[in-house]
Amino acid sequence: MRLGDIAEHLGTWVRGDASRVIRRIDTLERADAESISFFSNRRYRRQLLATAAGAVILSEADAGDCPTNALCMGNPYVGYARVARLLNPVPEMEPGIHASAVLAPSCAIDGRAFIGPNSVIGAGAVIGAGTYIGPNCVLGEGVRTGDNCHLAATVTLCAGVYLGHRVTIHPGAVLGADGFGIANDDGVWIKVPQLGSVRIGNDVEIGANTCIDRGALEDTEIGDGVKIDNHVQIGHNVRIGEHTAVAGCVAIAGSTRIGARCSVGGSCAISGHLEIADDVHLNGGTNVPNSIAESGNYSSALPLQANRNWLKNMARVKQLDEIARRLRALEAKSK
User: Fewer C-beta neighbours within 10 Å, C or N terminus of the chain?
Assistant: First the structure.
């Protein structure tokens, strides 16, 4: 594409040669004269100064350091995302049903959908127009997908799971397995039937090997525009608000409510039955034992340090209760 056409797509202007032809997107370090790159992290300033890219997407404040054509944007990373999609469109899907697929007689599959090899579609399932079901997927009884969904290989949707439109689910994800519901009867664990299901909104993306459990009575619900990374565990009856992002290896215990436009960093652990407000941002590794009523940025856990220093600090942490008692005693004497 001509650089001028890319700029028009981004709603910006070209500082330099608008006729330059761009064929690919690449890093500042690897880009050549037919590549476009982006600069959004000042740790890479040296790569910017030396880049051979045909053009760079960057902020106007950084344009003076750019040795080539520039597209100026307030958020260069968003520009990168949009150009990457523009230059790498999703291939058009050929509708059809593979001969090895197993379909229940009562399922309903739109003629514009695709069902891949060895996939199984259960009784009463409904597959929307333009939806792609990859190889070895299992869609249980009563599953419903909206239009233009994309399920990669080996995705499992258990009975009654509902997907909105344009939902993307990566390989190995399981939606609608039983939640961890057990009751202790004099030392013996009794399974609590999980009678709800899972409801996924529009434009949701769910990463590989992520599990979203069905609800005990009500449904587990994921709002419109939510993005979930790989290896995430979402317990029964969790509700996640619109346009929240959840990074890899997060665990969210049952019946917790997470608000809209939140971000949850990798390896966070969120306890059950909590309420987390809108616009809350949890940094990676944060442990959340209590509800969060106010928006903002939250962290926990200790940062990396040399092991001998960590051992000393942990020994001192164990002494905090005794130190607090001695301090209270000293304060009482001073009054």
Answer: C
Q: Which domain holds residue 75?
A: 3-87
- Identity of the amino acid at 145: T
Whole-model pTM?
Answer: 0.91
Does 141 score more than 80 pLDDT?
Answer: yes
Residue 123 is which amino acid? A
Residue 230 in any domain: the answer is no
Residue 314 host element (H or E): helix 307-318
**pLDDT tens per residue, range 53-110:** 999 999 999 999 999 999 999 999 999 999 999 999 988 899 999 999 999 999 999 9
- The number of domains in the chain is 2
Residue 225 lies in a domain: no
Task: Express each pLDDT in 127-138 by its tens digit.
Answer: 999 999 999 999
| Of the residues 59, 87, 115, the one at which a domain ends | 87
Q: What is the pLDDT of residues 255-297, one digit of tens each?
A: 999 999 999 999 999 999 999 999 999 999 999 999 999 999 9
Quick one: tokens of 217? 């009575």
Distances (CA, A) of 314 to 1, 156, 300: 58, 44, 15
The set of catalytic residues is: 236
Three-state DSSP class for residue 47: helix
Query: d(Cα 217, Cα 237) in Å, to the nearest integer?
Result: 8
CB contact at 8 A, 222 and 212: yes
Flag whether 22 is in a domain. Answer: yes
What whole-number distance in Å separates Cα of residue 39 and Cα of residue 57?
A: 6
**Burial of residue 330, with CB atoms counted within 10 A of its CB: 0-12 exposed, 13-18 middle, 19 or more buried:** exposed
- The answer as to whether 49 is a domain residue is yes
Q: CB under 8 Å to 180, separation ≥6 — which residues? A: 213, 235, 236, 254
Q: What is the pLDDT of residues 292-325, one digit of tens each?
A: 999 999 999 888 899 999 999 999 999 999 999 9
Alpha-carbon distance of 71 to 5, in angstroms, equals: 11
Q: Which CATH number do you get for residue 37?
A: 3.40.1390.10
Mark which of 87, 122, 152 sits at the end of a domain: 87
